[in-house]
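Justification of resources, computational component.

The compute hours requested in this renewal are based largely on the per-chain cost of generating structure records like the one below. Each record pairs the submitted sequence with a full structure-token output. That output is archived, and it is also reused by downstream analysis tasks.
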Amino acid sequence: MINQVYRLVAPRRFEVAYQERSLPTDGVVVRPTHLSICAADQRYYTGTRGREVLAKKLPMALIHEGIGVVAYDRSGSLPVGTRVVMVPNLPTERDDVIAENYLRSSKFRSSGFDGFMQDYVFLPRDRVVQLPASMNAYVVAFLELISVSMHSIQRFAAKAHARRNVFGVWGDGNLGYISSLLLKRLYPASKVLLFGKTEEKLGRFSFVDEAYQVDRVPSTVSIDHAFECAGGIGSQSAINQIIDVINPEGYISILGVSEYPVEINTRMILEKGLTVVGSSRSGLKDFVTSVSFLEQHPDVVEYLQTLVGGVSEIRTMGDIPGAFELDLTSGWGKTIMEWNI
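The structure output for this chain reads:
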């Protein structure tokens, strides 16, 4: 069969490529239905990744957050029409110690090879997770981002000390919202404090115990553990503020991505005996855990619906740039593409 792949070939310019594919004997073919635009996709679209990176990566189909319906599964274990979330991480080996998302040999869609902007996506069977038919499609479109937060919290649970009275989350964007919400549901007896820059955004975090603007934090505030979700240039000040207010031997999870090195106060990391752990991406088990969690907590899905900042229907390739431009002008949440091309 001929599959059409919609690739970014230069900043703000897409072209269609035609690939001849055979139906897999041991895989699954998925027809995408809902795709979510990520900040990483935007960096490629706008050309802010830098000329050398773009020259190496492009042309490439974008998007690594998305769901679809099964179009073909020779085994029959997933009937045609079954709704699934697609896992963008593609490991090429197994390791008993290192998780699949940290293996240097693993591939990741929309970062080095084609993402989900295709007519059909050909996947190994273990790269799809079945979704409940009734679960909100616009929310599970960005399940990958939810799984990233879940992954970081699972790592925290395995590594941090047992005093978990107060959590602090830095970052008032999408990842901060998701992480705060998951922490509040996973640790209902604990307090969750949010630290951000924008008063309007802070007001959306109605489920947290306290919300502070980062330049107005009372001197009496202290936390046991922290999750940094700010990213960018703001990650430096966020990490250093965490180091200031966290209690000794606390755990700091760094999730925010920065394009440039940042300076942090290593002296106080040593004096307080802090554990600093970086978390990136997620793997199959994190998707499975996230789907199960959302099934058990329908109220969380309702909260996550508020993250749907815009919806664009894609019927032709000419509709794609409009969705990315809409996302650039959106001050809150995720932009979802209804993939009807």
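DSSP finds eleven helices and 18 strands in the chain. The domain at 147-278 is CATH 3.40.50.720 (Rossmann fold).
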